[in-house]
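Think of the structure tokens as a kind of shorthand, similar to the way a musician reads notation: each symbol stands for something richer, in this case the local conformation of the backbone. In the example below we present two proteins back to back. Begin with the first one, reading the sequence and then the tokens, and try to describe in your own words what changes along the chain.
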Amino acid sequence: MSTSIVRSALFVPATRPERIPKALASGADRVIVDLEDAVEERLKEQARANLERFLTEHPEARVLVRVNAPEHWAHPADLALCQRHPGVTGILLPKAETAAQVLSAHTTGKPLWPIIESARGLAALGSIAAARGVERLLFGSLDLGLDLNLRNGSQAAEQVLGQARYAVLLHTRVAGLAAALDGVFPGIQDTAGLRESVAFARDMGFGGALCIHPSQVAVINAALQPSPEELAWARRILDAAASGEGVFVLDGQMVDAPVIGRAQSIIQRAGDSV
């Protein structure tokens, strides 16, 4: 399993290449230049040309690229651009619905992040997750809700989306992928709502979330950081475990391998802040 920690992945439209350096300086763990949803149909070729120019002029930059969906006319040219440039460190594959689509995109040699955002994609999740080249899965809650005709924001919709999230987490683990990322939170000014949404995804087992505005980055990163209390607990567990005993008692509580693993996960999630 990849141990790469990604808490926040920030979209920036390829129609606004001047925003890419700002996105790279935003504190996001990854920056995604978008050739798909954020780009009008008539501007697809211009957007790709913008990204080509940026990557050529800034060879030190490292970005992910969301290409157009496999059935879109621009998809082959998008993949070709990604293959040409070492600055593209991975490809987001929207509306991923078959392992064959993943394998086709893998001919670029780039790590793939399929987005599960349709009923077909959800039904084929096992084969998509197991396909060669997949690094992590992304959950596209908004598009999936639309495809399944869910009533946005309703309790019923959240129940269905919760089951879909579980499937993404399950197949992430089975395939040994890096931690999955939850979808975007559309309320740019709703900081409290974003924090609650990310905490919910974190508690489910997601590693992070996609975001659409630089102001969301710090909120997401903070929500995914362990609290000081969690870190103190994890350090005490690992310090006590250093004795080599497989099972021991600390503060009246039994500590065994799963508890030690939880402590290790907290320390890992803290990253550079430890």
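Once you have a description of the first chain, move to the second and do the same.
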Amino acid sequence: MNLSSKLLENTVQAFATLPGIGKKSALRIALQLLQTDGQEVQEFCEAILNMQKNIKFCKTCHNISDEEICSICNSVKRDKRLVCVVETIREVMAIENTQQYHGTYHVLGGVISPIEGIGPSDLNIDSLVGRIASGEVKELVMAVSPTIEGDTTIFYLAKQLKDYPVKISTISRGVSFGGELEYADEMTLGRSIVARIPYKK
């Protein structure tokens, strides 16, 4: 992309590094910002910098938070005995949008994938085992993407937790095998959570 301004070109390249934004979309955004009031642009930039600098990760579930403990874990309306295990923060948002789930979460930070060099020690598994060991959690809902890596992760967790009196269930296969959970529509995802099935160890 040949532009008459190197400054504009650098801005376009910066926006194009974001997921889902190509060079044309990046150029539209850059041109829009160029025509926007300077105060608004400054507030836009400050919001991003403030988020990056001050956002925290919940000490209990690893979800994003403004405080040490997130609003979900802190809510008295949430069933602390029920924990939904997810890969990333995006799945928390997707499940929350269904309004079908009223327990808490645990964000693993990914799934076990030897091909990509991701092992159990790279995930938030120890803290999950610690939560189970406390005795408060009665059921884990494995809301992990139905892929080989996802199933491997569920199998590993089930083995790690076999000596604890906790029920393990998985979301029903309304979400097709091989699909990414965050892209499932809200109705399908909500039904999959409600119609969860016991995990056969």
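Compare your description with these statements about the second chain. The longest helix spans residues 38-54.
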